[in-house]
Request: fold
Amino acid sequence: MELSMTKLFLPRILAATLLAVVAVPPAALAQTAFAPAPGPLPTLDMLKAALALTDAQASQITPILDAQTKALADVTDAQTKANTVRTEASARIAALLSDAQKAQFATLGARGGGRGRAPVDLGPLPEIHAAIPNTLPGLLGKPLKWVSTAPLVIPINDATHTLQSIKDPTISLIDGRWEIYATAHMTSPKSNNTFNMIHVSFADWKDAPQAPLFYMDTNPNFTGYKCAPEMFYFTPQKKWYFTFQTQPPVFCTSVTPGDPNSWTKPAPFFAQGTPMPGLPIDFHFIGDGDYMYLFFTGDDGNFYRSRTTYADFPKGFSNPVVAMRGTRQTVFEAGFTYKIKGTDKYLTCVEAQGAGRYYRAYVADKLDGEWYPVQGFDTVQQPFAGKANLSFADGVQPWSGQVSHGEMIRETNDERMVLDPNNLMFLYQGIGDAENRGDYGALPYKLGLLRAVKAD
Reply:
């Protein structure tokens, strides 16, 4: 009798459950980007096996399950859109605040995930270390002096795109051409007043300012909020990875990375529900032969680490833990990590805030080890790269008062991220002091190239 009643009312129960799934309040959608999605109902095969459904019942249930699948997809899409709006609104508000106000703003939960969110376990907190003497090789072992080019990649509009800035570059030399992907704050029919990306390709640096831009939102897989890319060749799989934030980190693959239309549809690294800091940003990957590591910042003064085996990559990443601690003044965003050629040392540089943005440098003996600041590369007066050690090539009018989110040009394109300490070049985003005010998205950042030279 109970089984018969279950069969009789099952379509109504499923329909009621479906309505409950669809009727997700907007507040729930606007929580963290890693909030778990509603759980799916059993599949038709599962119901048939468990309840011995008749063909008539199965035919009634099938459209309900199909509607459920569509509803869950709509919920996921709405959640993503809500997070995008929330993140961009928070960034715009924060750009208008003083540093003290930003700290208060973060405690309100506007950028930190905060209000109503349970504490997240991000592992034991490492010590904050004092700076250690600089024993690095090559140009890294000396006081650094950087010489900048004029802007090389600048915002260029077309009939359907208006760009306010170009930022956050990733760069590789492939078959004799420099391939650059970067963030652009743009307006267009598909990416309306948001951060998306561009691609540019050229053979010689002198040709960079004239190289045409490819707007990534013209690819249907790349519309909406997408930014802060990294590109590298993953040797075991013999293919290229293109990673960026959506807010969560996602990846695409290709065997022809110079073709911006060749990338696969973005897919996530982490499962929904993975514990994360309030605002995970600026993801950077590096491998040591056994593990692939993911490093990123959290807009909270911490530098985070996750890892997976080479065999499991791009899946299987562990829950992130705090790899290095600081403050929002010293460990802000835009970190990158490299293996220093000819040594057993790793170098991490993270953007800091002082008199304009600048980079501090840290070293470790292994990627899951302790990070130590390097003396002489750890203050606004003596940065790894910043206004204090920035000059401009002969004939170039000084155009930037800071060194912000960029990427070093490495010796190899593969996941090991090998950096030649005797040949240091840094593609960075810069902006003039007088231009550096107002809406963050509209700040007119441009890309220039730094070359390290021996200090006098």
Q: What stands out?
A: Residues 339 and 346 are 5 Å apart (CA to CA).
